[in-house]
Write a structure and sequence with these properties.
The protein has 321 residues and is α/β, with parallel strands linked by helices. The chain is 33% helix and 26% strand. The chain contains 10 helices and 13 strands. It has helices at residues 20-24, 31-38, 51-66, 90-98, 114-127, 151-154, 213-235, 252-262, 273-276, 283-293; strands at 3-12, 17-19, 42-44, 75-79, 104-108, 133-141, 159-169, 173-180, 188-190, 209-211, 242-247, 302-309, 313-320. The protein has a 5-stranded mixed sheet with strand order 1-7-6-4-5, with helices on both faces. A 4-stranded mixed sheet has the order 8-13-12-11, sandwiched between helices. α3 packs across α4 (90-98). The longest helix is centred in the C-terminal third of the chain and has 23 residues, at 213-235. The radius of gyration is 19 Å and the shape is globular. The two termini are 15 Å apart. Bound molecules: coenzyme A. The site of coenzyme A has 19 residues, from α2, α6 and α7. Belongs to the thiolase-like superfamily. FabH family. Keywords: Acyltransferase, Cytoplasm, Fatty acid biosynthesis, Fatty acid metabolism, Lipid biosynthesis, Lipid metabolism, Multifunctional enzyme, Transferase. Its EC number is 2.3.1.180. This is Beta-ketoacyl-[acyl-carrier-protein] synthase III.
């Protein structure tokens, strides 16, 4: 069966660590509140780097591991909601930075579900026989979209990038599903920075991220188990066969609740938000790369990737490693 296989992973996080105690100096919060509500202890934040630079660093590491040369890449999809420019796309910038001269490149906007949407989209191209080799990246610098005086959001997020090289093969992605619900867009939203209007005499304003935390929480713990069950049902895969559930790293309590609803042991739900916070589109590929480099993924292992976020968007992919 023609499918798509991940043949290399890479990730990159900025050097600068910002702890919960650091944030307690700028907003009315504390380490205990943040840790117990979210599982986050610290995050990495950029100083000089942008979304595309981080994406290119993660991409280079994935290429190195895969042995695929930049000129062999036919498609680059960058899942991001924090592009450095309106245009050119971040994916085109990455193309230039890594020398992927033969690739078609574009960004995909699905907030924290960006990597899963991008991977599934590349898979569709590969399955259709249009491309054979793709580079998928999730990279976000949400620190530039955050209102740093809003304690309800600023403690949750971090910056980072993760990437995967995907090739046509006989084994790999076994199934996938994606969903969107545009009627709930306002529960997790970031205004545009270019909303000026000449005729109405409106000056452009800065837009910041706002969130209804409890609505997002309820959405995630309902929709993630649902979409995972659907992918398993589509492919006739029993839940017990899944070695790991690699979920978007938004919040440890969301993961615990998903595990409980699926009746699966937490041992199968790796987590690293403790160190990076919620890195949006980057969280799944960063975790996947860490697991891959730690030798935790063995050929034949079945793993689920599942993302959820603004849009609202959510989805899941079943992979045989
Ligand atoms: N530090 C201290 N107190 C805080 C705080 C912070 N950083 N942020 C909010 N609070 C306060 C609130 O103001 C509120 O105070 P009040 O009772 O005096 O009004 C209290 O804590 C409880 O707020 P609430 O929003 O009910 O907390 P919660 O238990 O729902 O936890 C989240 C808040 C954000 C941690 C939780 O809703 C969540 O994890 N949601 C999902 C968010 C997410 O993952 N988003 C990204 C998805 S991609």
């Amino acid at each position: 069966m023609l499918t798509s296989r991940i043949v290399g992973t890479g990730s990159y996080v900025p050097e600068q660590i910002v702890t919960n105690d650091d944030l307690a100096k700028i907003v009315d919060t504390n380490d205990e509140w943040i840790r117990t509500r979210t599982g986050i202890r610290q995050r990495r934040l950029v100083t000089e780097e942008g979304t595309s630079q981080m994406a290119a660093k993660a991409a280079k590491r994935a290429l190195e591991q895969s042995g695929v040369k930049p000129e062999e890449i036919e498609l680059i999809i960058l899942g991001t909601s924090s592009q450095d420019y309106c245009f050119p796309s971040g994916a085109c910038e990455v193309q230039a930075m890594i020398g992927a001269v033969n690739a078609v490149c574009y960004d995909l906007s699905a907030a924290c579900t960006g990597f899963v949407y991008a991977l599934n989209t590349a898979h569709a191209f590969i399955k259709a026989g249009i491309y054979r080799t793709a580079l998928i990246i999730g990279s976000d610098v949400l620190s530039k979209l955050i209102d740093w005086s809003d304690r309800g959001t600023c403690v949750l997020f971090g910056d980072g990038a993760g990437a995967a090289v995907v090739k046509a093969d006989e084994t790999g992605i076994l199934g996938m599903r994606m969903y969107s619900d545009g009627t709930k867009g306002d529960v997790l939203i970031c205004g545009a920075r270019t909303n000026g209007n000449f005729l109405l005499g409106k000056k452009p304003e800065l837009g910041y991220m706002t969130m209804n935390g409890q609505e997002v929480f309820k959405f995630a713990v309902k929709k993630v188990p649902e979409v995972i069950r659907q992918v398993l049902e589509d492919t006739g895969t029993p839940m017990e066969e899944i070695r790991y559930f690699v979920l978007h790293q938004a919040n440890y309590r969301i993961i615990e609740s998903v595990a409980k609803r699926l009746k699966v042991d937490m041992e199968k739900f790796p987590a690293n938000m403790e160190y990076y916070g919620n890195t949006s589109g980057a969280s799944i590929p960063i975790l996947l790369d860490e697991m891959n480099r730690a030798g935790k993924l063995n050929p034949g292992d079945k793993i689920i990737l599942s993302g959820f976020g603004g849009g609202l968007t959510w989805g899941a992919t079943l992979i045989q490693w």
